[in-house]
Write a structure and sequence with these properties.
It is built from ten helices and nine strands. By secondary structure, it is of the alpha+beta class. It has a four-stranded mixed β-sheet with strand order 5-4-3-9.
Length: 264
């Protein structure tokens, strides 16, 4: 296994270990799973691993960055209020502790660090699925997709600046993924599933008109006209109360096509 470094060369993984933080051999391939949605969690071969807070922050940052990073950059982000020397020392200590877990969680050189490629991450799985849906990948069978993969807040209760930025990026990707899945289910003649996914999209962002529009289309596709009108009325009332505005002409026309609303 080989990984690239910024100057364009490549270094054998064993040499990386010899030049970096750890010189031993892990006994065998272990299954590592990192959860960042709805809270931090790490499992090794299906068993939860207790991870101290500093190491949680390091793993989470490397997971969302998803690339080889300079040690100085990582240390500066995670220990913003410390001196460069102290921050680099904290990073070195965290890498050493992670190497005690009995499996390769991070890869490190004297200058760079990244999450080990063998660690699976729920946020990365979510992003891959959402991106495939958004770009209408023909390999995806919408009827087999669990919309739960596209839900969940990134690291709730964490307020580091980088987490807040990543949380919004993840939220937007989830919303677009849910809407793309809903639209695909409608196109495949699966209105029941489309309604379920549409409800999930609306719950994730109640003021998002595109989500309400797809949900209404799902109700209409099922022949549930009253449900379509009820959903529209709910959205109109919510917009008026929260923002003091009316729904767009687009969503009004969607319901009026069925002659369910008076022209207004």
């Amino acid at each position: 296994m080989r990984i690239g470094i910024e100057k364009g060369g490549e270094v054998d993984l064993q040499q990386l270990r010899d030049d970096g933080e750890w010189r031993g051999q892990w006994p065998r391939t272990r299954a590592l799973r990192l959860r960042l949605l709805q809270g931090f969690g790490l499992t090794l071969d299906g068993q939860p691993v207790a991870v101290p807070l500093n190491e949680q922050r390091l793993l989470a940052f490397l997971a969302v960055s998803d690339r080889l990073l300079l040690r100085s950059y990582v240390a500066g982000i995670l220990w913003l209020d410390s001196s460069e020397k102290h921050a680099l020392g904290n990073l070195r200590s965290s890498i050493w502790r992670l190497h005690q877990f009995g499996a390769e969680v991070v890869q490190a050189t004297r200058t760079h660090v990244r999450l080990a490629p063998g660690v699976s991450v729920d946020v990365r799985d979510m992003a891959a699925l959402a991106t495939s849906l958004i770009h209408s990948s023909p390999q995806l069978d919408a009827t087999e997709i669990d919309e739960g993969v596209l839900r969940g807040e990134l690291l709730p209760g964490w307020y580091d600046e980088w987490v807040v930025i990543e949380r919004e990026r993840v939220r937007q990707l989830q919303l677009h993924g849910l809407e793309a899945l809903c639209a695909r289910l409608l196109a495949f003649g699966q209105p029941l599933r489309a309604v379920q996914v549409g409800l999930a999209a609306v719950a994730a962002e109640p003021l998002r008109e595109s989500a309400h529009r797809l949900l209404i289309q799902g109700h209409l596709a099922e022949g549930n006209l009253a449900e379509a009108v009820r959903q529209y009325d709910f959205y109109r009332t919510l917009l008026s109360r929260e923002l003091g505005i009316e729904p767009s002409p687009t969503i009004k026309r969607l319901v009026n096509v069925e002659g369910l609303l008076s022209s207004a």
